[in-house]
Structure formats: C-alpha cells, structure tokens
Amino acid sequence: MKSKTLTVSIDCSPKKVYAFVSNAKNLPKWAKTFCKSVKKTGRQWLMNTSLGPLKLRFAPKNNLGVLDHFIKPPKGQDIVVPMRVISNGKTSEVVFTLFQQPDMSVENFAKDQEMVEQDLATLKQVMERSSDQ
C-alpha cells in the first residue's frame, strides 16, 4: 500500500501528549475531521465518524510512546493506524502514518491526508493551550 507519514512538533511534554492521545475519550477534541463522538461499550470503543459508526481499539499502554490504533469498519479487515509520540527534549514530535487502503482512490487518499494534517494541527493547538495553563 502507498503510505504517507505526517508529523507535528508540539511544545508540550511527551508524557502529557501520550496521556491525552491514548485516552479515546479525547478523540473528538483533536480528531475533529473524522471522529464526531466516542463511547465505550463493554471493552470496546465505538466512534461515530464521518463514515458512520466504527469500532476502535488502541495498542496497550506503554512507555515507548506507541499510540497505534485499529479501526474496524462494518465490513472488512481492521485498518491499522500507526502513531507515535517521540521526545524531542522537553517537547514532542507526533508521527502519524497514513496508508492508502486497497479500494481507496488517489483523490480520497489525498483528502485523508488533508484531514490528518488538520487533526494534527488541532492536536498541537489543544496540547499547547493546555501546557500554558
């Protein structure tokens, strides 16, 4: 699959960024182009998205900054979304890899990339605003 890796520098500690992003309840606060709301049902998260309801799970909590998440569409296989928060001194680098899915057009892949870039910019704003307080 074709891929695109996107990054954003955030003037906030990696520990805070990781804690915020790894909490699925915060998705609608920063992934606004995709996630409209999220709720936990049993052991699973269910997102209301621009594509309809999707199941979501995160990689287990870890000290490495791994924020991978897995989206389960109603039909088909899990979509793997690799994501990391990396220490850059007292600040953070967030790395997000987007894959062009087999049935996705070049145009839709470009739209997805724009959405992720917008969401990463929102994450930067949210985290830097919270670190000022």
* Tally of alpha and pi helices: 3
- Rg calc: 14 Å
**Number of separate domains:** 1
Overall residue-averaged pLDDT value: 92
> What name goes with the CATH superfamily?
START domain
Number of DSSP strand runs: 8
| N-to-C CA distance | 42 Å
Shape summary? globular
Low-pLDDT segments:
none
Oligomer: single chain
H/E element sequence: EHHEEEEEEEH
Largest sheet: 5 strands, antiparallel
CATH topology: Alpha-D-Glucose-1,6-Bisphosphate, Chain A, domain 4
CATH top level class name: Alpha Beta
Strand order of the largest sheet: 2-3-4-5-6
Helix content: 25-40%
Please state the structural category.
Answer: alpha+beta
Give the DSSP E fraction (strand runs of 2 or more residues).
35-45%
CATH architecture classification name: 2-Layer Sandwich
Secondary structure layout plus pairing:
Layout: E1 3-10, H1 14-21, H2 27-30, E2 35-41, E3 44-49, E4 52-58, E5 69-72, E6 79-81, E7 83-88, E8 91-99, H3 106-132
Antiparallel strand pairs: 1-8, 2-3, 3-4, 4-5, 5-6, 7-8
Describe what you observe in this structure:
The protein has 133 residues and is an alpha+beta fold. The chain is 29% helix and 38% strand. A hairpin with a 2-residue loop joins strand 3 and strand 4. The model has no long low-confidence stretch (mean pLDDT 92).
